[in-house]
Specification:
This protein has 426 residues and is of the alpha+beta class. It is 47% helix and 16% strand. It has one domain: Cytochrome-c3 Hydrogenase, chain B. A three-stranded antiparallel sheet has the order 1-2-3, covered by helices on one side. It has a three-stranded antiparallel sheet with strand order 6-7-8. A three-stranded antiparallel sheet has the order 11-12-13, with helices on both faces. The longest helix is centred in the N-terminal third of the chain and has 27 residues.
Length: 426
């Protein structure tokens, strides 16, 4: 019997470690991705808060994806209060959601995961080796952050988003200024997807259950009405209330199962369930990747190391969606920023695709107009079980490698999932 322990895995959002017990024949007897963050109890903090306060508090769950949290909270409360938002608000929300995925994905695949595929130590050496690509990534992040600042008021924890819409809408001239850098952002996205097309990805073969928002005729990177998991298509209420099960045994994080089985969410899950709704160029890159890697569809969707490439494809697709939404807003007459809402007793469940996958927010409002109950299920909480299941399969395959190489492979897989531990311990 031997133990393999990684006290801390850097380049993840929040503190995580790894522990395993391995038999003399290489079989896994115990395994765990350790969460090294304390419980933050934001759900509890919300109880008794006024409706207008709740989204701003919830956004503090994460500094990388605050847009997802604040938007999903607004949507849950709009459902609870029977608020009908305008098409303009919906388009602006799609726009800022696209921007958040662009800046989050680009930071993850380049600055957190890329060094795992090379013998590179330190960001200064990464920048030296990939100087052009580094500039491209910074251009992409600037492009995404400019959208967030223009629509949301500031780049981190935006303040203009509210129940019913926005406190104010951006001027058309400010939106038009974003597109000045569109060509640069588009070329940067192309450069990234081509770089990640050429990497040598570790092999892993395990049948995976993928869950994502689902729409028949569009790629659901924003709000979702239904969820597709495996071959099933469910309403968000059925999935949340009847099909998934939260375990509180792994304190301080909820760990979620679907019918007692682990499942995967995120970019790879979205491609699995919705890739036919990507534009032709983005679909073409997926097909080209399969050809260059010498794999088919089945191999692609049984190896979660490829989540990194899926994020690169989404960046390319979403940069173009930003241009599409801004161009549409430029042609429309800007309407009032928000619709008034009347506080009343009610409850709402909203579903949104955050960078790392399905985010579910349930909020209940009491007769006094204050939050009476709250439940938030984050992407990382949903796929931690699946990550551990992948590790169980992978470790016997790498058992004969040196300890250093085993540790590197384990870290590579964990980082490929793009875990946000800060969200998981909300």
């Amino acid at each position: 019997m031997s133990k393999l322990v990684i006290p801390h895995i850097h380049k993840t959002l929040g503190g995580a470690g790894f522990f395993s017990k391995i038999s003399e024949t290489g079989e896994v007897e115990d395994i765990k991705v350790n969460v090294l963050e304390g419980l933050r109890q934001i759900e509890g903090i919300l109880i008794g808060r006024r409706v207008f306060e709740a989204p701003l508090v919830i956004s503090r769950i994460c500094g990388i994806c605050p847009v997802s949290h604040i938007l999903n909270a607004c949507r849950a409360l709009e459902i609870a209060l029977d608020v009908k938002i305008s098409p303009q608000t919906e388009r602006l929300r799609r726009l800022i959601t696209s921007a958040q995925l662009i800046q989050s994905h680009s930071a993850h695949i380049f600055f957190m995961s890329l060094t795992d595929f090379f013998d590179i130590k330190g960001e200064e050496n990464l920048i030296k080796k990939f100087s052009k690509e580094t500039s491209a990534v910074l251009d992409l992040r600037d492009f995404g952050l400019r959208v967030i600042e223009t629509v949301g008021g500031r780049t981190v924890h935006p303040m203009t988003l509210r129940v019913g819409g926005f406190t104010k809408v951006p001027e058309k001239g400010d939106l038009k200024k974003i597109l000045v850098n569109y060509d640069k952002a588009y070329k940067a996205a192309l450069m990234l997807v081509k770089l990640f097309e050429t990497l040598e990805y570790p092999q892993l073969k395990r049948e995976t259950l993928y869950a994502s928002s689902y729409e028949e005729n569009s790629y659901p990177y924003s709000q979702g009405q239904k969820i597709k998991i495996g071959d099933e298509i469910l309403t968000r209420g059925d999935f949340f209330s009847n099909k998934i099960e939260e375990s509180l045994k792994s304190f301080p994080v909820k760990k979620v199962l679907y019918k007692k089985e682990p499942y995967m969410v995120g970019a790879l899950a979205r491609l699995k369930n919705n890739r036919n709704n990507l534009d032709k160029e983005s679909q073409g890159f997926v097909n080209s990747f399969w050809k260059k890697q010498g794999i088919g569809e089945k191999e692609f969707f049984t190896n979660n190391f490829y989540n990194i490439y899926a994020q690169a494809v989404e960046i390319l697709y979403l940069v173009k969606q930003v241009k599409k939404d801004i161009s549409a807003l430029e042609k429309e007459e800007l309407k009032p920023a928000f619709v008034e809402c009347k506080e009343k007793k009610g409850s709402g469940l909203a579903l949104l695709e955050a960078p790392r996958g399905i985010l579910m927010s349930y909020l209940e409002v009491g007769r006094d107009g204050r939050i009476a109950d709250c439940s938030i299920i984050t992407p990382t909480a949903q796929y931690l079980n699946n990550l551990e299941a992948d590790l169980v399969v992978m470790i016997p395959q790498i058992y004969k490698l040196s300890k250093e190489k085993k540790i590197k492979r384990i870290k590579t897989l964990i980082r490929a999932y793009d875990p946000c531990i800060a969200c998981a311990v909300h």
